[in-house]
Each structure stands twice: as C-alpha cells, then as structure tokens.
Amino acid sequence: MEILLEVKNLSTHFFTRAGRVKAVDDVSLSIGIAETVGVVGESGCGKSVTALSILRLIPSPPGKIVGGEILFEGENTLELPEKVMNQIRGNHISMIFQEPMTYLNPAFTIGDQIAESLIVHQGMKRNKALGRAIEILREVEIPTPEKCVYEYPHQLSGGMRQRAMIAMALVCHPKLLIADEPTTALDVTIQSQILNILDKLKVERGMALLLITHNMGVVAEIARRVIVMYAGKVVESASREDLFLRPSHPYTRGLLRSIPRLGSKSQGRYQPLQEIPGMVPSPFQFPSGCAFHPRCLEAMDICKKEVPKLHTIGPGWECRCHLA
Q1: For the residues 101-108, what does the mean pLDDT come to?
Q2: Is residue 32 part of a domain?
Q3: What is the domain range of residue 234?
Q4: By the 8 A CB rule, do 197 and 166 touch?
C-alpha cells in the first residue's frame, strides 16, 4: 500500500513553570492512501497532541515539536513555511475536533463557517461557496440543509453540530481526515449514525482516515489497523484482527477486558466489569522504566528500571514490552 502520511520519531513537549511535559515521545505511525487507522488509549495518553502535531497546531508557547519528521506525500511538513502549511490544513488534511461548540464560532452561521474554507482554499465566490455548503450538509445527512446554512451553532443539537463539523472538514475533499473523538458526548444511536457517515464518505472519496478514540468498539467497527498509546508513546501497533484476537501488550489486554459485554454471567451471577487498576500517571511524574508498570499485573523487576523498546513481533505488528 502506498503511504500517504508517515510520522517518524515525533516528540512534542510542553515547557511549563512546573517542568517539561513529554506529551508525545518518539511516536511513529503511518497511514496508507484510503486506509483507516485507529489510535486508542485513555485520556492523557497523547492521542490528541499527536493529531495537532501533524497539523502543526500546537500552541507555542508552551508547546513545541522538538524532534522527528512528519512526511505527507513524501514531504516533511515540519520544514514548510507557515504560508504553505495553511494551504495544506483544511485543503489536503482536515480535522474534526472533539467539542463542536468549542470549535464552531457562535458569531457566524454554519453556512459561512463551511464556506470560508472554499473561499480561502479554492477561491470561490461566497454565493457559490454557500451552495456547495448546502450540498455537503446534505451529504452528511442534515435535514433541511437549505435552512441549516443560515442557522447558528446554538440552534443545532449536539448530533447536528457534529455533522456540521464533519461537513466543514470534508468540503474541500481532503486526502486525509483526522477525526478526534468524533462521537464524544453523543448517545449510542447518534454515534452509530456519525460513524456510518464517516465510513460512507471515506469510501466514496477514497480518503484516508485517522480515527482517535478511547472506544475500542468504534475501532473494531471501522479501523483496518490500530495503534495503542500510553503515556505519550506507542505501546502496540497491529492489524485489527491481530490486536483484538491476540493482544500482546498488557495495556492492550486491559483495554479489551474493560469492554462491557452482554450476557457476562458465571454461575448465575453477573461478573463485575474488569478495569485497569490505577490511573494514567501525571506527565510531570512519569514512573521510571515502563510507564505502565505500576498498573501492570505482569510487571517484572526490569519493567521498573528499563524503558522497553518497540519490538517487531510479526508482519506490521510491534509491541513496546519486555515480555514481547
């Protein structure tokens, strides 16, 4: 498969008064043309910072990309001037952000916010851009799109706002869409609709999709490959089938055990949900050795002293664990 985006040894740090935060530490990943890749992990593991780094949207100060390469169609975007990067954002690489009400401007109509991308990137006149906005709103299954273009974000429900965000991200036909928790705070029925829309448009447009989520069920449904992150590092990367059937890293196994299952009964009693003990450590105080060892049920002495390397354990399958 031809590679569209390749991230090599990316490190993004935040320099604060309390110290340096290694939010993303030596992360490598790749996405092929028209491929869907899922990035999973608990909150605070570095997923969103990785996505923002790809688009060079890290606030500076305090954040800074301190190392690595981000190759989009073979060109290192970290070396491009900001003017060129502005043409890539929204036009070739788009992103759906977590909170629609945070990223939708309450002072402008939905139509104007979608049309802005077409005016800036493709030089369209406003009337033509609004007409295209109506078309893309119809594609993301918003009822009465002719009315929606003149409405403000507060007039839409959560699900409609998320669809508007998808429309805004896709209106310029990007080659890569980064979806950061696109189903957060939506009920299960709406979540399913949003995922179906994303999958349908991805197939129709031959677009690559980088899906960031903490929901393993979402990844199992639409991702081809899965990357598991913990404490700013990739701890496992594998095909969907390998990861769900033969997870190698203890953290991956913990995530899979914590998925609620229907009919989980034993001897007439429902079994309690298995959780991963403890919490993701503070980025100011990562433990020595493997960052996961204080929560790991299989930790050994070496895990407390030595940071594990990323081992190749099969074709397209890597694991950062001493047990690997």
Answers
A1: 86
A2: yes
A3: 1-83+227-257+273-324
A4: yes
Question: Is residue 185 one of the residues assigned to a domain?
Answer: no
Classify residue 59: in a domain, yes or no. Answer: yes
Helix axis angle, 110-122 to 126-139, nearest 10°: 120
Structure tokens, 213 = 């989520």
3-state secondary structure the chain: CCEEEEEEEEEEEEEECCEEEEEEEEEEEEEECCCEEEEECCCCCCHHHHHHHHCCCCCCCCEEEEEEEEEECCEEHHHCCHHHHHHHECCCEEEECCCHHHHCCCCCCHHHHHHHHHHHHHCCCHHHHHHHHHHHHHHCCCCCHHHHCCCCHHHCCHHHHHHHHHHHHHCCCCCEEEEECCCCCCCHHHHHHHHHHHHHHHHHHCCEEEEEECCHHHHHHHCCEEEEEECCEEEEEEEHHHHHHCCCCHHHHHHHHCCCCCCCEECCEECCCCCCCCCCCCCCCCCCCCCCHHHCCCCCHHHHHCCCCEEEEECCEEEECCCC
What pTM was estimated for this model as a whole? 0.90
CB burial class (10 A; 0-12, 13-18, 19+) of residue 86? middle
Give pLDDT, residue 272. 74
Q: What is the pLDDT of residues 45-68, one digit of tens each?
A: 999 999 999 999 999 889 999 999
Residues 6+ apart with CB under 8 A from 17: none
Question: What is the average pLDDT across 106-116?
Answer: 94
Quote the number of domains for the chain.
1
> Residue 91 domain-assigned?
no
Contact present, 119 and 129 (Cβ < 8 Å): yes
pLDDT tens digits for range 131-142: 999 999 999 989
CATH number of 33's domain: 3.40.50.300
Q: Which amino acid is at 146?
A: E
b/e per residue 229-245 (b: at least 16 CB within 10 A): bbbbbbbbbbbbebbbe
CA of residue 133 relative to chain centroid, distance:
25
